[in-house]
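Re: the pair you flagged

First of the two:
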Amino acid sequence: MRSPRSVTTEIPGPNARSEMARGTFDMQHRYRAVVMDDLASTGVWLHDVDGNVFLDLFANFALGALGYNHPALLETARSPAFVAAAVNPSSTPFVTSPSWFDFLEGVARFAPRGMSRIFCVDGGGEGVESALKVAFIRHGERRRAAAGRPRNPLELGPEEQCAIMDNAGTDAVVVSFSGAFHGRGLGPMSATHSKLIHKADLPSFDWPTAIFPANRFPLDQHAEENARAEAESLAGLEQLLERYAGRVAAVLVEPVQSEGGDRHASPAFFRGVQALAQKAGAAFILDEVQTGMGMSGTYWAHEQLDLPTPPDMVCFGKKMQMGGFFAAPDYDVGQFGRMYQTRNGDRARALLGLTTLRTIESEGLLDNVRETGAHFLARLQDLATAFPTLVSEPRGRGFLLAFDLPTTALRDDFNARALRRGVFTSYTGIRSVRIRPHLITTRAHVDEAMAVLFEVAAEMTA
């Protein structure tokens, strides 16, 4: 079967430029690379308004799961329940409909092990922010209880209540890791350490940062170096937790540091982080906004870490079509008004998220991600072998794939050349190419994409 991939104009083309010119009222208009034809796009094929067709390995920064215009999603979007949820906004905690209970019953089957509650908001970064709030709430309640004071802040004396209302802060902190990205809110941004542009001129909480070990690849060639880096990282984390003893509300970490450059660590490292967090009495929070919903070959990437006990909270976003977190029983905050927003869960987006999870299951997409992802990684390793001065450190887990180029400029040139040939890759970190295929991507799609990446590498090294 002939591939639909075709690029016949410059990028962006004349129609795209015309459309972009209409969008300058949007503060973000300068970012745009493609204007898609979202009626024509289908499966892994992204069509633009100039008739160009790209093999999409970008998936809109991993938002996409089932490709474009998947029949199951279209069926959900056309259902009476979806239409009613979309046109009748509700304050979901107070007023909801049966479709919300359908979502709750359905999503509970896919929740990470040990999670007994879900808290929903609009986006992944907001979900991280909310999880941090819960960690601080529990930490404060426990500290007051240990001191023989009321857990409930409404039972505090008038002076303490006045101090709280006048912005009296807590000395509690969150420990995060170098290279992390957790979102754009001021709480998550204080735990973000990946790019200067994210943080410049913004106020931050004075929270400590541990060093992330960032494994080198291939793993077998860097075993001693990686083991040493992980041991040093854990020792440094332990020292931080001792320095802030009694004040650490949470330890926050990504199973794979995605925005920071697709940086990995071993399962043993994460087990060590969890053990240290537990010893410190801190919540162990996993940020799975990008790594969750099947990208790693399991529903949640931390399933591959062999944690002895479940994490305390797991944040989600992107492919779920909304954000939030799952919580273990100890982090179920039930006091009225303690955790509440007007819309804690968009009922229409929730139906799409549940359909996505069910389709991943019914179409066996986890198996596809594992098998096709392994093939993709092997081909990327072939690319690095063929062009060792240009391509290095191919790495991945499932469809969480990346490789490095020597400089930012070369990385950006590589992506631009691939796009002009109809393969849409992305960027991460300082010099890494990020690959985030839709979960329906097949071995044939991978081989077609790799033929293009080989062409690009050969052209750049000629």
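Second of the two:
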Amino acid sequence: MNRTEKLPKIADPRGNLSFIQSGPGGACPFEPECVKWWYDLSSHDSAVIHPGHSREAMFVPLSGSFDCGDATFRNPSTALIADSAPDTKLHSFASNTVVLMLCAGEHPSPLPADTPDPHPASSVEACRIISLPRLSQNGAGSCSWVDNADSPLPFSVRRVFYLYDVPADATRGGHSHFQAQELIVAMAGSFDVVVDDGKNAPRRFTLNRPYLGLYIPTGIWRTLENFSGGAVSTVLTSHPYSEPDYVREYSQFKALSNPA
């Protein structure tokens, strides 16, 4: 049986943020094992997304819209949850639609342990672009994915959040993490990510392909800027949300990155 689920939405004049995770504060009824996204979708009614497995899944329109049965989904903070994914078919895509899917695993990997170590001293040289799998499908655009069971990432995905309705002159980010690692993907449009380790010259990456992601290890200050119209920034992260994991003051970040 399919149903809808309202996702958390943090409204901000710099762009809205929604997130997906299981457990307290989250709206995902399962521990995500695989994250997929479809793009370059045809607007013709014949285009269909058929997930092709029996696991429970969640679908979100990051941009544009899609139909499932007689219902239309066009709100990035509203998800379609399918108890049996093979019975779920998405169709009638609007132009520039991007569909995010999270699905449950048969054997979820263990949650990461809390390790309250000092703020790690990472280098901007450790930040790198990772090429993700890309599969072109007849009548259903292209699909890329990250599967925790066989991932190109050095971490398992525990939380997904995304920024949308971002003004062109907005700046987001402005923090580092004690523990969380991240992969940032431009699911739609483009934007720049500036990474800073507090010691070396910052590096700038332009993201504009949904099959390329920027890996950011712990201990790196990141800033997102230069958003194009309709851009959607999606972040796959290694840990559920925890405010103590954030360093939000640059002066504190500099002190932690350059201990006496």
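The helical segments are 250-257.

-B.
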